[in-house]
Write a structure and sequence with these properties.
The complex is a heterodimer of chains A (301) and B (343).
Chain A: H1 2-6, H2 9-21, H3 23-43, E1 46-51, E2 54-59, H4 63-71, H5 75-104, H6 111-124, H7 128-135, H8 137-149, H9 155-166, H10 170-181, H11 183-189, H12 191-203, H13 206-214, H14 219-248, H15 253-263, H16 268-296
Chain B: H1 2-28, H2 32-69, H3 73-77, H4 91-100, H5 102-133, H6 139-151, H7 154-166, H8 173-178, H9 189-196, H10 203-215, H11 219-227, H12 232-243, H13 245-261, H14 264-269, H15 276-279, H16 283-295, H17 303-327, H18 329-339
Helix pairs in contact in B: 2-17, 4-17, 5-9, 5-10, 5-13, 6-10, 10-13, 11-12, 13-18, 16-17
The chains are: A mainly alpha (301), B mainly alpha (343).
Chain lengths: 301, 343
């Protein structure tokens, strides 16, 4: 109230019109986000029983959470697996999209065409099409066949064998090979990130590079001394976007388990509890990682 | 003959001259020029190979689907046939169209995507403008809510949203007056309600981008409008909106496309409305049903043929989007990259 009184005349009018403008959001947020969110939080502490035409909640305390974390044989494994995948994939997407944006920012013949192709996945790999793509058994069986028939000819396979038998950091190499094998997934999920990085690259003024070149900077040096710091504020945006995008995908084992519990077993309480654990872990991950990244970020202005 | 001969001679001459000049300059710069040129050519070749490979990687599934969709069943098992079908046929398209009831679904999908996209962007524009150009108490808090909304996966709240619309009620008013709640599930209405409340698919992202755009418009423009006697609403409609056309187009296109392919909200709310995104996943079941009924083949269709039909169906779903992308590619990409998304 005290603050309201301080705003007088024009300022007050502006505050009121500002609230009028964001009114749809406030109503929607309260009705379709806060209410369901609290309801699902409440449900995660309950056993939900669906009756004809109604449903009843029965308070059971932490039982659902205990069941998910301590009793369920799959949940912990799925959770750690999808988190590990999330981290590796997100880093790969960041590196890939940064690299591609660098290349696409250069001048060469047919750039418009290449750009158009790289952004194609933004529209083609969303929603149901992605799901259908993943179910495509023909493609995967064909891939298996190709992999079987060409074990001798595979370059990555040969490198893999050499590196693995040399015994240095086997686990780290395995992660790298996972990423290399999944380069298609990475390429089709990094459309938006490429656009964001490209928009950042275009705002860097050419005079900066010119000055560096005159001072004797090589292209490699100016990449790390100019491009990287100038674009680092977008790292944060892209990192968060990538993580969220990955979490929203419904094709992971964990999401399937949550969906199954809800749709097939009608275990609304248990599935809400699992969704909440996943959500909490992801939020913590985002918070910690963005804190670390924001230390590195350099703001030009 | 002589003319072309002299022309080529002249060209070789100039080429020779140019080469001579190049070696001359190279000598003067102590082989620096040669190294640099060789380096440039190398970079160009590597870049071309890399980009070609990546583009092929992205396009290959699409091309693969196109070639498969024209194949007759026996071509799928023929090891000789890889890309070009031996028995060219359009039967797959006819079958897939009948399985998806393509005409009706397409019409419905266009209507739903268009209306929801317009509604979403209209609401998000209002909200984004409010966040960008006005100072009011608790602004930071509400904006944090927008960020929170982007972060929360819709799966977390799907179960309770489902129950919410299954037993729909406005703050208990309906139940006390008529004694029962309405089942809003199975119609388009819940989706419209959600869009009107800016809670649809990725709406937080649109709010964020639109706010970012409006923040970059100079304050003087707005003040000039106020001085000239424009009200708040008039300034918004006459001064700000025309400026924001590029970002609004790009948000609209994204919203349209993502609604088109979305199967989360559609599955949740529109149980009975035939939409392409909902017809596509069940196309395989339809195929085995059809084979069962028409030809009495039990056990469903073969794996290869099922996938052929799925590929055809997928193509039919994305072809309208592809055409849209070809026409409005600038709207998708250029405006987004010019808007400058930053934190």
């Amino acid at each position: 109230m005290k603050k309201q009184k301080k705003l007088a005349g024009l300022q007050k009018r502006k505050a009121i019109s500002g609230y009028l403008f964001i009114l749809p959001f406030i109503i929607g947020f309260l009705a379709f986000m806060v209410t369901p969110l609290f309801q699902s939080l409440y449900m995660s502490f309950c056993n939900v029983e669906l009756g004809p035409g109604t449903f009843a909640n029965q308070w059971v305390g932490l039982a659902n959470y205990r069941r998910a974390l301590l009793q369920d044989i799959e949940f912990n494994r799925f959770l750690t697996e999808s988190l590990g995948k999330l981290v590796v994939n997100s880093i790969a997407v960041m590196v890939f999209s940064f690299f591609v944006a660098l290349v696409l920012n250069q001048k060469f013949k047919g750039r418009a065409l290449v750009r158009a192709i790289f952004f194609l996945p933004v529209i083609l790999s969303s929603g149901v099409i992605l799901g259908v793509e993943y179910d495509n058994a023909l493609l995967s069986s064909m891939q298996d066949m190709i992999a079987e028939s060409s074990t001798g000819a595979s370059i990555t396979g040969a490198i893999k064998d050499i590196l693995v038998t040399s015994g240095v950091g086997v686990r780290a190499f395995e992660k790298v090979f996972e990423v290399v094998d999944g380069v298609y997934d990475i390429a089709i999920t990094s459309g938006i990130q490429i656009i964001i990085f490209l928009s950042g690259l275009q705002t860097i003024s050419a005079s900066m590079y010119e000055a560096a070149q005159i001072e004797g900077c090589t292209a490699w040096e100016s990449l790390w001394k100019i491009t990287f710091p100038m674009i680092s504020s977008l790292l944060l945006v892209n990192w968060i976007y990538t993580i969220i995008d990955f979490c929203m995908r419904s094709d992971s084992d964990l999401m399937e388990k949550i969906d199954d519990e809800m749709v097939l077993q009608l275990n609304y309480g248990f599935s809400s509890a699992m969704a909440w654990i996943y959500f909490a872990v992801v939020i913590v991950l985002i918070a910690v990682s963005s804190l670390i990244i924001s230390k590195v970020v350099y703001y030009y202005d | 003959m002589t003319k072309t001969a002299t022309k080529t001679a002249a060209r070789t001459n100039t080429l020779g001259a140019r080469a001579a000049a190049f070696w001359e300059r190279n000598k003067k710069s102590q082989n620096y020029l040669l190294k640099k040129t060789a380096m440039n050519v190398c970079v160009k070749i590597i870049r071309a190979v890399l980009l070609f490979g990546l583009c092929f990687l992205i396009l290959q599934p699409l091309l693969n689907k196109i070639s498969i969709s024209f194949m007759a069943e026996e071509d799928l098992y023929n090891a000789m046939v890889i890309a070009i079908p031996e028995h060219f046929t359009t039967d797959n398209y006819k079958l897939a169209a009948s399985f998806m009831s393509y005409g009706a679904s397409l019409r419905n999908t266009i209507i739903v995507s268009l209306t929801t996209a317009v509604l979403q962007i209209a609401m998000c524009t209002l909200v984004g403008y409010g966040f960008a150009r006005f100072e009011f108490p608790l602004k930071k808090f509400w904006f944090a809510c927008v960020i929170l909304m982007i972060v929360i996966p819709p799966q977390t709240i799907s179960s309770s949203l489902y129950l919410h619309f299954r037993f729909f009620d406005i703050f208990g008013i309906l139940e006390s007056t008529t004694g029962s709640t309405i089942n809003l599930r199975g119609s388009v209405l819940p989706y419209y309600l959600i869009c009107a409340g800016c809670m649809g698919l990725k709406n937080g992202l649109y709010i964020f981008m639109i706010r970012q755009f409006f923040r970059n418009i100079p304050k003087e423009l707005e003040e000039a409008a106020y001085v000239d006697g424009c009200g708040t609403l008039k300034t918004f409609i006459r001064i700000m909106l025309p400026d924001a056309t590029p970002i609004l187009t790009s948000c609209f296109l994204f919203s349209f496309v993502w609604t088109w392919t979305d199967n989360f909200y559609t599955r949740l709310f529109m149980g009975k409305v035939p939409l392409l995104a909902k017809q596509l996943p069940i196309i395989a079941d339809r195929l085995s049903q059809y084979l069962q009924n028409e030809f009495n083949i039990g056990g469903g269709a073969s794996l290869g043929y099922t996938n052929c039909i799925i590929a055809t169906g997928t193509l039919m779903v994305i072809v309208p989007l592809l055409m849209l992308y070809l026409v409005a590619q600038k709207g998708f990409v250029e405006s987004l990259s010019s808007s400058g998304i930053k934190m």
